Amino acid sequence: MNSSGLWGGGTLLSSCSGQCSGGLLCDVAVDGDYTCFNYTDSAFVLLIRDSGYQSDEDAAARVADASYVSKVVELPDDTEVYPHVDNCYLYDVSKLEINSDIDQVVLAGGNSYRGYYKGRVGYLTLNSDFIANQSQITRVSLINLNLKDVLHDLPSKLPVNTTQLDLKNTLIYAFPTQLTALPKLEKLNLGSNKIEEVSALNFSDTLTALNLSDNNIVAFEATYPNLEILYLGGNNLTAIPAAVYNCTKLKSLYVLGSSLLSPIFTDSQFQFLQSLDTLDVTEADFDTQPACQTNNTQLLRNTIPVCLTSAAPVATTTTDSSSGGIATGVIIAITAGGAVLILILLVLVICVCRRRRRAVKFITAELDDPQLVPLMLKPGDIKNVKKIGAGGHCVVWLVRYRKSQLLASKRLRKDLARRRITKAFIEEIKLAAPLDHPSVVKLVGIAWTVKTDIQALYEYVDNGNVTDYLTRPGTLREWTQQKLQIALEVAEALVYLHSFAPPVLHRDLRASNVLLTSEMKAKVSKVGVSHLRALASGDKDQQSVMGPWQAPEVLMGSDDRDPAVDIFSFGVLLSELDTHAPPYNDARSLSGTQLAEAVVLQMIAAGSIRLRFGEDCPSDLRSLADSCLAKNPRVRPAASELVYALRTIKKLV
Fold this sequence. Notes:
Oligomer: single chain
Strand order of the largest sheet: 5-4-7-10-12-13-15-17-18-20
Pfam families: Pkinase (PF00069)
Shape: globular
Keywords: Leucine-rich repeat, Membrane, Repeat, Transmembrane, Transmembrane helix
Largest sheet: 10 strands, parallel
Radius of gyration: 31 Å
GO molecular function, one term: ATP binding
Helix content: 25-40%
Structural class: alpha/beta
CATH topology of the largest domain: Transferase(Phosphotransferase), domain 1
Number of strands: 29
CATH class of the largest domain: Mainly Alpha
Protein name: Protein kinase domain-containing protein
């Protein structure tokens, strides 16, 4: 393949207008170059190799797993066996016409569809028709790909004759009920995803094999009357689910690698498990050994000691006096149960108190900082007025201090009040404490008591943000002195922040993070918040903290401690001021559909997409923006150069 000019990405098509003989599929790039792909036996297999795209889950794994690199290096490589293409050359799949003797399609991220690292995926967008009209296709595998954006309508893109569907390692977070729209689906592989629950609504009477291994499942309530093979290993189950025993045709059950409770089964459950052709579970999968009160211990599959219990209490013939004895026993049992309950509550109270004391000690130590002590305010002097905002990790209240001054009170969301996030919040406060510049939102004070959460109190900026300003009907589209002044004041804020040793970086500069006073003075907000946002989202499945304002080196996972990352974001901010629109909102695929953000981020990382500016944008301003948006961070201007250039442009406009 000629690699020149292909960084714009390409599309998987049928034959490329006759360029590929024999009905072969091909990849056509934006410059017209193409590559033909051979079939393998009765299948079309295409490996989409890693080349810059990184999912949030993969980014989190790089940080959390010390052996990440070695594990990835050890993954199998089948690129000498199957056709392959780099993901940066191919991210769009059009409607495909496939040879009639081909009954299987495999699209897999990485160098092989046999091996994978969970969360490490490629990215593809699928045309609305994809292979829907290819009735000869019965087996479809979309493996190691980010399917978040296509899962909702995936059945409409697949043949109605699909009997086998493999969606392993595709970042699925909920059981895809919509797949029941495939009337002939028999085998479904959802392994190595993020599914937590399989509810009773996830019913299917066509499935004979279901793989849910290596997910996060805590509840399995669905019944499959024709299911013969079920994989549930590597989940968070605390017992073999009761619904499993209702799968009357089940022959093989795999639960290896689950952490189960004590192995106590009813007689009927024991017989059900004994009758299976395959039961993949070991004694190590149970937390504790059973303590059978009835001494009815049996060996499950002749190896695992389990305790059998009746499904209901055994009936006993008694006299009147024995009935009295039973009543007395019930009273004793209730009394004993009450005592146990009181003991449990007492233990819980003690644990909560100890945890609270530890939290108090931790926060007190963190806030005992010479920079922060002068900023401590009395919580009693602060009165809530109204809630004015909420983000990924914090809520913001408008408060009145000492019955006069309005401030913005920023507090951690209660569901995120864990030690490492609290510590990051305090670090954000420490970062903001010494900042004192007219174009940076000022930290006024801190308040905290044992009974209240930490509050960071900032000056209240009352005129919204730049995004709000740009979307107001009366805002002119051309570059006015007012818009140039906003850009200049943001640049002056960057000069100030970058003058520290080491430089203070914003890392998330965008129009929505620049506030405006009633006098239309710009003030940069949320300095240092991006690290806290990353930690908070890490507790919620590592949801994205990236965006099209980020520099290519940040998106590629490189070190982001260089002021040049803020300069790139400033270039994106200039495009927002110019177009009054979000960055790259006009980016389209060859088929005319809007590119998903993940694709846009991949193209930014590769340097293969340019921001749009209006025809009336002053040429000097456009040149300045282009220099900020350079892929090489070393050629981007310093913040001081931005200030000089903008002052010059202001004189000419």
